[in-house]
Amino acid sequence: MDFSPKTFSLADYLVFALMLSVSTAIGIFYVIKDRKKQNIEEYLLGGRSMSACPVAFSLSVGFMSAVLILGTPAEIYKYGTVFSWTLLGYVWMTIVVAEIYIPTFYNMKLSSVYEYLEKRFNRLIRIEGTLLYFMQSFLYIGIVIYAPALALSSVTGFNLWGAIMSTAAICILYSALGGLKAVIWTDAFQAIIMLIGFISIIIRGSVVMGGFENIWRACEEGGRIEFWKFDVDPRIRHTAWSLTFGTGFQFLSTYGVNQGQVQRYLSCKSVYEAKKAIFLNSIGLVLLTVLGITCGLITYAYYHNCDPLSYGFVEKPDQLLPYLVLDIFQNYPGMPGLFIACVYSGSLSTVSTAITAMSSVTVQDFLKPTFDWSDETFTWISRGMIIFYGGLCILFAYLASSLGQVLQAVISVLGLVGGPLLGLYTLGILFPFANSVGAFFGANAGLAAAIWLFIGSQNYPPPPKFLDQLSYSLAKCPGIENATEPSPIAMIPTLEKTTPVMPPEVNMYAFSYQLYTMFGFFWTIGIGLLASLLTCGWRDRKTVDPRLIYPFFDHWIFKCFPEYFKKSSRCGIKRQESYNGDGEGNKLMLGKRETTKSQSL
């Protein structure tokens, strides 16, 4: 391995510039192609004409992409392969989203997912849900803009804030020009770049290490191969349970009720295409995560005798993979540029998803209900909102520099708001007797509890024994012979000296960050149901529009259940028919698609 300084070559910059140029060209293409039929639905929802494959690509790379590329290999390098249990979380999340949330939202022909909250509860709850979404988006996008810029600056000397400004500028340009259709197709292109980047690292890393069996052996000797970790203590950072259920709930919030993702379902030509998109998306998520895990194993195997973090070659774990790329591809001009294009593609796809979603929410939730303007006016306002939100996201990027490891920071931020939001929608969809009072108190209680837990965990961090950070070796570092990095217990006391730590038996804040979404979700559900029952929600349940409720036990998978049980589970709500938006109802056995049409509700 070579620890000399590394820089970009001209070929690397050309490859990187080519990716940016193609992304911009897609936006220009769609503004020209659709110039004669540009209206607000075409601009924000792609004319509701998209097919499953491009939408699936967009879903896969639209939310965790840049974080996945940088954060997953760093996670494997520091903590081992127990992180692989997230894959099981993707699977059950996909089934729930496809069978409950997509049919409910799609068949109502919504433009904004927050319309549901007003129809189910009231205008105040819709505004609160929208504000929670904006809070989550700005914090999240700040991190996503910062992450790839950090990768660029750390390995090439490229100006950090120059990279941040260029990320925002490119996103704003093609998103504002082409609308959602351009964003989706650009995401598809960027997904291909990400796959090529990951696969290139795996192939070259395997060649350098003499085969994958050598990589696996080095990781086994370093304690990085660990799957069977079934501890039930919620204070342990990662276990099979916290990753399976924590990740599942976090992604359920992301893919089930987040405007950025729901907007893509709503752009599909049918509910069948929308469901197909989410299942294809899960395959993409699994593939990208497996590739990220593999890159993490290669990174550890390559540096297993000289840890760049401990020796000072890199400052943060998220810089490890970029450093590896410049190391193993130093004699291959253009390949480091391909990797940076891969990271940058992840950031572009995520930022464009967020700013188009925030533009849609602003127009659909705040402006259209208030002003009777033409579609052309709203389309131009949407473009202006994309530019405005893109600029505003740059300001929040400053916050990201103090949030530590990228992957953990993002999951923590998403969990704080994602859990209460998921709970708010689930109250409305699954519980007919939930009312607006319960929704209000439930959402606020869930948010307060999640923030309380997060702040407490920052002030009173969990003891080192729950962090499970693995040891490193410095034996082959330049100027060091036969040295081994101390165990994690010996490396972390500086944290304990500067922050107060409560005794383990009373440390109520030592929750795994993976459980924040679950924590906020169940607080919202519990308080929401209690407040609804105390304010006569059960009495008013029969006045709820059946289209807004998902009678869970009417799904075909429960066909063996007795009818009297199914009837009682509906709480007096008549069997629902889904609304297809053209004045007629499309009879839907909640997941089982039928073609016969019935009378309009």
UniProtKB/TrEMBL annotation:
TM annotation in the entry: 13-32, 52-70, 82-102, 130-152, 158-177, 184-203, 238-257, 278-303, 338-359, 380-400, 406-430, 437-455, 513-538
Gene3D superfamilies assigned: Sodium/glucose cotransporter (1.20.1730.10)
Cite the InterPro entries for this sequence: Na/Glc_symporter_sf, Na/solute_symporter, Na/solute_symporter_CS, Sodium:Solute_Symporter_SSF
Q: Which PROSITE patterns match?
A: NA_SOLUT_SYMP_1, NA_SOLUT_SYMP_3
Q: Keyword annotations for this protein?
A: Cell membrane, Glycoprotein, Ion transport, Membrane, Sodium, Sodium transport, Transmembrane, Transmembrane helix, Transport
Describe the reaction catalysed, as an equation: iodide(out) + 2 Na(+)(out) = iodide(in) + 2 Na(+)(in)
Name the membrane topology term.
Multi-pass membrane protein
Pfam families (alphabetical): SSF (PF00474)
**Where is it chiefly localized?**
membrane
Q: Where in the cell is it found?
A: Cell membrane
- Family to which this protein belongs: Belongs to the sodium:solute symporter (SSF) (TC 2.A.21) family.
- What NCBIfam families does the annotation carry? sss
Give the matching PANTHER family: SODIUM-COUPLED MONOCARBOXYLATE TRANSPORTER, SODIUM_IODIDE COTRANSPORTER-LIKE
In its UniProt entry, what is this protein called? Sodium-coupled monocarboxylate transporter 1
List the source organism: Clavelina lepadiformis
